[in-house]
Design a protein that fits this description.
With 279 residues, this protein is an alpha/beta fold. It has a domain of 179 residues: Rossmann fold (3-Layer(aba) Sandwich), CATH 3.40.50. 51% of the residues lie in helices and 9% in strands. The protein has a five-stranded parallel sheet. α6 runs parallel beside α9 and α12 packs antiparallel against α13. The longest helix is centred in the middle third of the chain and has 14 residues. The chain is globular. The relative contact order is 0.15.
Length: 279
Amino acid sequence: MAQLIFHLGAHKTATSLIQKFMRDRSELMKELRIAAVSRSYSNVCVGWGEKFSARPQLLKDEIKKLIDAGNKYIVVSHENSLGRPFKRECSHLYPNAKNLAESYRDHLQEFNPLMVFYTRSQSSFLQSYYIQTVHEGSTKSFREWYDPIQQTIELSWLWSINALRSTNFLTVIKKFEDLSSGGQEDYIASFLKIFLPTEDLPKFKYLAKRNISVGDIGLKMLLKCNKHVRTNAERKLLRKFFQENFNNTNYPRPTLLNDREIDYLDKLYIADHCALQDS
């Protein structure tokens, strides 16, 4: 009996690290009888959730094909699966989570998926996601981006967590900070342990550095450079340049929220942490 593992993000919790590991270590995945739906195909059949809702059969057919090929574990990993966060006209962090979770429930029941979702503290999530917007070409300062968000959006993870739990599928919630301190290999292993029997998990090395971001100086320069970028090709080259030369390994990580703001957010969303402890 094959097991479907649906890894739904969230953003900025090393989802792409897991995706790239499964792609890069295809021989190990074959040995473990794990098959992953490719990121490129997930873009087609999941998108920001709306593509799945419109044509669920695309993903279902791919899952069935991988099951028929004799794989024991089928992994769908796509951080956009609950839609876009920080939609200014909405009040929740992932406002489409409820509707999309209902769509997954209605169309994936035959596979009885294990739902996996990672969160991180609101302060670190905000800062990391902002930097992502700059990588994607934004020229807004952190305050220009964040001030409207804090005025209108409830940043609790509970809306998304409750939406996933309402599917009645087995749902595993993990916190990014609890797992990331051990490095890439430990983080990947913690994901595999969610569904692999401990005795089946081999030791492995994965030294490729993934998801390198910019340091503080790099972020300041990138904001200025973004104003002059004209094409996606130029943006990719610029991002690569700053990741290689002004990354957060060689330079301090940008500090965008002060200690008072971080403490305030931690206390405000203490209920999130309690809910995660029960997961």
